[in-house]
Amino acid sequence: MRFADSDALIRPSPVTISVALVNTDWAKKEPDLPRDFFLAYLRGARDFCQAYHGGSPRREIIDRLIRSPTETRPELLDEYVWPSSDPFGRVNVASMLDMQAWFARNKFIGTQLPADRLVDPRYADYAAQKLGPFVLEKAASPLAGCR
User: Fold this and answer.
1) What is the Cα 134 distance to its own chain's centre?
2) Confidence tier at 2 by pLDDT (50, 70, 90)
């Protein structure tokens, strides 16, 4: 059984499925720690992007996943649609606001916040600057994500 690709079905895309959260009071007191964390996070996201497109880290990432309880059958990981990630740590704000509106319409939340209250790109910008450009190993990949 193959899972559907959310980016092929849901607009706006790419669908933001994961974000990093930080306690802003703590981050003000320890500014180097969240920056360093996000630098490591973005290195991992870039490896994941290369693997997503069939690049050199794919086998290592699949091996790591099967050692975790995520999925223990490597043959399925080659068939699953992997969620895309952003190699610069950007959040698709339109996607995030669309999800927030859905939660509000369905009464899971009472208040909708503006994007500038939800997204602070400083950590992603810092990490992307430190890491430099991202070049996809398999530029001919037909997959849309991680670009």
Assistant:
1) 15
2) low
Which of 95, 78, 139 shows the shortest CA–CA distance to 7? 95
Per-residue pLDDT, averaged over 85-104, amounts to 91
Both structure tokens of 122: 């400083």
And the tokens for 100? 């927030």
CB-CB contact of 50 with 137 (8 Å) = yes
| CB neighbour list of residue 51: distance below 8 Å, 6 or more residues apart | 57, 58, 60, 61, 62, 82
In angstroms, the CA 44 to CA 49 distance is 9
Q: How far apart are the first and last CA of the chain?
A: 27
Alpha helical stretches, state H, the chain: 6-9, 24-29, 32-52, 58-66, 74-77, 93-105, 115-118, 122-131
Residue with tokens 């430099």, as numbered in its chain:
132
Residue 146, judged by CB atoms within 10 A of its CB (0-12, 13-18, 19+), counts as buried
Is the entire prediction scored with pTM above 0.70? yes
Query: Does 129 score more than 90 pLDDT?
Result: yes
